[in-house]
Amino acid sequence: MVTETATRTRNTPEPAGRYRNFPVPTGALSLPELVARFMDSCRHVSPRSGRRLSPKTLKYYQMCLDGLLYFASLRSWPEPAALTRDHLRDFMDYLDTETHRWDGDGRRCTFKKASPGTVHHYMKVAKTFFTWCLDEEYLQDSPALRLRLPNPQYKDVEPYTDAEVGAMLAACEGDIQRGNRYLGTRNKAIVSVFIDTGLRLTELAEMKLSELDPQLQQVRVLGKGNKWRAVPINGQAKKALRLYLTQYRPSQVKDDAVWLTDDGTPMSFHSVRIMIDRLKVRAGVKSGGSAHRFRHYFATRYLENGGDMNVLRLLLGHATLYMVLRYTKFVDGRRALAESKSYSPLDRLTRGDNHNRRDENWGWRR
């Protein structure tokens, strides 16, 4: 028996486009209609935390569920009430093994296998969606119940090295010396703020003049979960930012954005990322990653310099210490490698406590 909340009403939109071929029993809502209602609910309150979700999180939810709808249409899934864990396991296998995903879905087709983290997040969103359907009484049973998600297997923290950061700053100085004073000064300010604050790429790209406080020497940024936080900007980062704002940023531009292109247009998230990628090439930095590795650099150096873990959590905008502990693990590992040279059991046995050991390489290369 279909409950009253699961019946189609006049206000329920008909499924559109590629999702019209879903089997729909009389009076029941189709999977695309349930996804539409779920997303409409998420715009008011998160189904998990009870807080309001950011536009970026809503976009991510929609992307993951569009993938679910694409696969459901591809495999001719039955009506939502007939779905089982096996259907979701098939979707998980598709994410895990298929190289060319979403072919013909209207978005860019992939050309490599998804990472364990990507598979985990897609399935986490799907599980949240079906749990919501159960809580809202659209379904009597959730196919995601007791579904075990794959381990995300997050990569180890890998910050830029001091040499790489120095090379990027030197490349900015080189641009200034060659006459590209505006771009060189702006890019140096961006890199300096990245290094000294650990801001996320989106947070830095969306910095506003109205949120800068010169007296308190801090900026207010909007982070994950639509949460505001204040971040200090001190020392050399403050000096680089002040030089850009007072002498090079066009004063006639009335836009509130801090970072502008050379024609006065606000820089977007993608513009900053492309700038960092090009800067790495000019600086001769060949390691992977992009702007987010500055965040890792800030966090690990902060801890190595004696900073407090909980203060770092607040500066980075994390709700828990989970990510900070990953930075701590990296710092402890580096410290262990460094100290192993001083406390080598074999060296002490063969040469004594006061031996003078030369720092020789291994004599071979890979």
Structure report:
The chain is mainly alpha-helical. It contains 13 helices and three strands; from the N terminus they run H-H-H-H-H-H-H-E-E-E-H-H-H-H-H-H. It has a three-stranded antiparallel beta sheet. It starts with 30 loop residues before the first helix and ends in a 15-residue tail after the last helix. Mean pLDDT is 87; it is low at 1-20.
Question: Average pLDDT value?
Answer: 87
CATH secondary-structure class of the largest domain: Mainly Alpha
Structural class estimated from helices and strands: mainly alpha
Whole-number count of domains: 2
Would you identify the CATH architecture of the largest domain? Orthogonal Bundle
Q: What fraction strand?
A: under 5%
Order of the strands making up the biggest sheet: 1-2-3
Q: Helical percent range?
A: 40-55%
The counted number of beta strands is 3
Estimate the global geometry from the Cα principal axes. globular
Q: What is the element string, with H for helices and E for strands?
A: HHHHHHHEEEHHHHHH
**Count, helices:** 13
Within the CATH hierarchy, at the fold level, what is the topology of the largest domain? DNA polymerase, domain 1
Radius of gyration, whole Å: 26 Å
Biggest sheet descriptor: 3 strands, antiparallel
Which stretches are poorly predicted, pLDDT < 50 over at least 5 residues? 1-20
Separation of the first and last Cα atoms? 68 Å
